[in-house]
Design a protein that fits this description.
By secondary structure, the chain is an alpha+beta fold. The chain folds into two domains: 55-191 and 327-354, no CATH class; 205-313, Chitinase A, domain 3 (Roll). Helix content is 55%, strand content 15%. It has helices spanning 2-18, 23-50, 64-79, 81-85, 102-126, 133-150, 153-159, 163-185, 191-196, 229-240, 243-246, 279-286, 315-342, 350-354; strands spanning 55-57, 60-62, 93-95, 100-101, 205-214, 216-218, 224-226, 263-271, 297-298, 302-313, 346-348. The strands form four sheets. A four-stranded antiparallel sheet has the order 8-5-10-9. Strands 2-1-11 form a three-stranded antiparallel sheet. A two-stranded antiparallel sheet has the order 3-4. Strand 3 and strand 4 (100-101) form a beta hairpin. Helix 3 (64-79) crosses helix 5 (102-126). The protein is elongated, with a radius of gyration of 33 Å.
Amino acid sequence: MNNSKKLKQKKVKKEKLSEKPITSVSKPWLITSIVLVVILIGALLFDQLYEATLMKIDDKKYQMNDLSYYFNTVETSYDSYSQIFGGSVWNMTYDEKAGTTFSDVARDEAVNQSLYYEILNNEALNQGYTLTEEEKTTVSTNVDSLLKEQYSAAVIKKNHFTKAYLTDILNKTTLVERFRQDKIDALDIDDAAIKAGISVEDYRQYDIEYIKISTQTTDEDGNTVDLSDTEKTAAYDKISAIYDKTKTTKDWSTLIPTDETDLIYKEDSFITTDTTFSDDFKKMMMAMENSSISEIYKDTTGYYIVRMVNNNSSESYDSAVEKAITDAENTAFDDVYAKIKANHTYKLNEGAIKSLKMGTLTLAD
């Protein structure tokens, strides 16, 4: 009797427990389980993508871990633009008409850079090129510098940047650069003619140093506005107070007290076709002799005292000539590379490559 009563009580208790909604306890666990599964699948897909063959060159397959140096070089370069734009550049539009982002352009650049060095390295080896002992020493030094000074521990770990891997990559890039230069030297590029086509006068550079006090300020809306007449007079008086000292002081930077915020000292240079100075101000400076000091000059933005350091510097001209010759060499070598590339077999895994999201591949998290 008592036993049957107890059994009945147990049965009633069991039925009461079963009346509680099962979803009230199981739902959070169900959601958590789904999230964990999604994360796991995502991780597996990422690993598969990272380990997928991205390209095949001359029967050799390349995965991301083979190409991470090239991708890191490009990612690092583009990521530095973030500092300029004040935010991530990866999803920013590069070409609205083409519908491309900076990420798309950077990815294509990394792929092309990988093809470039790997194909040219193969060609150089086919033509009997090997590294010199001096080049091997340089590579070793550069690898140590990358590991100890340039790459963070996080980047090294994420990309498996071992000494052996980096040595292999830098061996390739070093060999390719010598191979490339040899091919360029053999081309019919007339450096003298290129140089003769650039005007010396157009690129005549004027090296100056000056002390300035501004006659403009910024209002609360961020607009540039002129100082009042009273404030301009005070500014003129302040720069006038040190004018005589500029004639007897060799190092003008010492004329500005450390706590002075209005007066500034700057070294600068300009050419006739490229300057931020007004035409009248530029004309005045171009007439100055070396080591001469101007009177206090009132320009549109402030008062200046200028000293002419060198009124006939060839720096800008030399740079223009060097750039023109380099551009001609690059254009000529593009044809050489196209012919070499045509003699090598390569295939891109477009699907895997398009799935790569630049900015997340090789940079430190």
